[in-house]
Amino acid sequence: MFCLPVIFVMKSASSFFPEIEACRRLARLPDGASTREVLSHKTVRDEFQKRLNQVAAEGTSSSNTVTRMMLVEEPLADVELTDKSTLSFNVVLERRAKDIEELYEDSASSRTLHAIRGART
Q: Where are the domains of the chain?
């Protein structure tokens, strides 16, 4: 598994909180590799790009098609989760406003991926 089952989805974009150890193993990086090194590794980004392209291709309408994703380095804080371990939408919006803004920029950043239409999965 490469992502925690917790994702933040809003208007065809998602923030993913990857399972760093699984990504580190995928990239075959040493234990000392930083989270940033792990998430920016080509093998990791290629895997998430492939999965994003597949999800985007399977969407049947704009309301259920994710076309952008951000791999979030900072783990979820306790305050961002409810007592039932679900995301507290308003808290995430407030705490991660800059991340969300970056997610919706027209061009991909080092932390975001945009679906490639017609890509082979």
A: 3-114
